[in-house]
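WARN retry 2 of 3 for item q-0093 after timeout on previous attempt; input resubmitted unchanged.
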Amino acid sequence: MTPAARVQAAIECLDLIAAAAREGGAAADTMVARYFATRRYAGSQDRRAVRELAYAVVRAIGDRPASGRGALLGYARASDPALLDLFGGDGHGPAAVVPGEVASVPNPAPGWLTGALAERFGADTPRQVAALLGRAPLDLRVNTLRARRDQVVIDGAEPTPFAATGLRLTMPLAVEAHPAFVAGEVEIQDEGSQLAAAACAAASGMTVVDLCAGAGGKTLALAAAMANTGRIVAADTDRGRLDRMGPRLVRAGVTIAERRLLDPAREAAALGDLTGAADLVVVDAPCSGTGTWRRNPEARWRLTPARLGRLAAEQARLFDLAATLVRPGGALMWIVCSLLPAEGEAQRDGFLRRNRGFAGETLRNPDDGAAVNQLVLTPGDHGCDGFFIARAVRL
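OK item q-0093 returned
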């Protein structure tokens, strides 16, 4: 592919990514893969170059663009003017730029989120949002059911700053082919997720409900913290994600986790046997994903005020459902990979107003060990994905 053809391909990929974001379709990586699946003539260097350009544009344009061409034009004008020379229709490239042609305006976040981000970060907002759009490292969690961290040898891996069983790589690695992964000694898990699991303080012998278990990342971490002793009910409404958990449990040597498929909005019926019986209920609730923009920058294009409202309502419903499962003296954990106060403090405070039989409980700040009412993890301060984490105990 010529340089101009690569630009045109990036524009076409951006159109697909924007359409998927608008319609609730597949993730950006999937859309790019589908694009090249029908274009076998593109070599590996072409695919890499197109993907990198498309993602550079996605990171630069916070609001969902009207077109991929407008997005790339806006990016080129602000960050890489040399790309403008490739507009002209030559070499399968994009058509020449029309005088006065409208282009997207680069901005780090959707304009309507400016106030919420400022509420979270204050004067530090520019630095924190810039960190949210940086490139994420590859974090691994050592599975203590199989090995200690000092026993796992992976070239280039260093201990994570805060998580006791974390390893971090800044260079690419085919993790799933590595002997340590095959042996179940490590799992791919961002340090923020590791810290969230550690904050749950799961212990041997507990009955734990992982209410939004997904494919099992936190279930595996909780089982390791429990030394594979006790009971974990890993529940979710997505059969496909629960199915993917099965092989992971086997590889990790976890035998205490029971997968349970729930019907959306009818979860209580399937969890009736656990009413008032759980020592710990973990709710890693569906959320805006604002804390994961490093990995999924196109998530900014998917979020709207209406969608945020729907997510907040679903979070409140799930937290109230979780409360019915907690035994007296047991704990409920809020975990969202969001940095928006509407999905953090507002949810926690609303829950405590609605559920007078619960009281907030402090957590340990990973920075200095101090007791805090909530944990707010950010890429800018902790080098991990963004999370809001809080804990309450049933009186």
